[in-house]
Amino acid sequence: xxxxxxxxxxxxxxxxxxxxxxxxxxxxxxxxxxxGAGIRGVVLSANYPARKFGIRAAMPVGRAKRMAPNAIxxxxxxxxxxxxxxxxxxxxxxxTPYVEPxxxxxxxxxxxxxxxxxxxxREIGQAIRKRVHDECGITCSVGIASNxxxxxxxxxxxxxxxxxxxxxxxxxxxLHPLPVRDLWGVGPKTAEQLERxxxxxxxxxxxxxxETLKRALGDxxxxxxxxxxxxxxxxxxxxxxxxxxxxxxxxxxxDMDEPEAILREYLKLTERASTxxxxxxxxxxxxxxxxxxxxxxxxxxxxxxxxxxSSTHEIYQVVKDLYEALKLDRARLRLVGVSxxxxxxxAPEQLMLGQREKGWREAESAVxxxxxxxxxxxxxxxxxxKPKKSE
Length: 391
Fold this sequence. Notes:
Layout: E1 8-13, H1 16-24, E2 33-35, E3 45-46, H2 48-51, H3 61-67, E4 72-74, H4 78-95, E5 99-103, E6 106-110, H5 115-118, H6 121-136, E7 140-145, H7 148-156, E8 163-165, H8 171-175, H9 188-196, H10 202-206, H11 210-217, H12 219-229, E9 245-256, H13 259-279, E10 283-293, E11 298-309, H14 312-326, E12 333-344, H15 357-374
Parallel strand pairs: 2-4, 7-8
Antiparallel strand pairs: 1-6, 1-7, 2-3, 5-6, 9-12, 10-11, 10-12
Helix pairs in contact: 4-6, 11-12, 13-14
């Protein structure tokens, strides 16, 4: 029996934060728009007219203002971004159940099994782009290939508002002329190391003996880059399986190194995951965190509890302890995540010494009901509340 070839779509919103600002204020369209506020803040996003001045994400706002003093600087609205993102993800899930969000504005989709019903990969990609535009008022770029790595590269090469399909017989001709920095996992330091070795294009890596790469870069990195240089990526689209685990992660728009800010992100992720846990009447015994560094190195830590829990407060305490035990000393992070596993559909009434599980559970049940009735931000942990500045 012949194996069905996998078809992966990578969909990436175009200048997402800036596009949402233009959606809410159409007078901004066609003008250079930068999302970021405060002289000491950083740029979250810049639309394409602003990028012509050299403005990029993660750049200090003060520098961006010097580069384009006439640009319009907009204060970020994270609640609004989450709202639009949720609508976009719903559209993706209407095409296939196999959706893996990477951040608020991008996701992988496995559409291998959707083609009989919905048409060719290109037709599916065009339909996704049309619905995102018609229903959300923003544009996206779509890359199509037989694996994640090539699909993501393709979407980046057809921006803005484009579609690029890379068939298997065109992968090498598309991939090999590109710079080594385009390889997944190659940050500035690795790129410098590769270029010192005389490896400037992806074809240079592909034509270097694997053992040479391993000696120069280490076994794992050498093999990883060699496989990618030939367009080989065996990762599958990972879908959150509620029967196995419930998770949430966040890829930052810029690398973070401030522990207090990182813990706020962990609290938001814990709130999101634990609310889903309670909505399904489940309890978790194992709490895990993920940390991905600026160089893409990723580590996980977990703790299995004597009794299953579902309270945001109690889960966050475990998450916080796991993070602080890492003692990262202001290491630069690009992603953090929380995962709840070892799930149970009931919890024993016995309490751990000193805990008030029932009290927290009842309080958070009331919070969940208020959020369902009045909106998810109607009741939130005080640590996540930021009062709006008076105009």
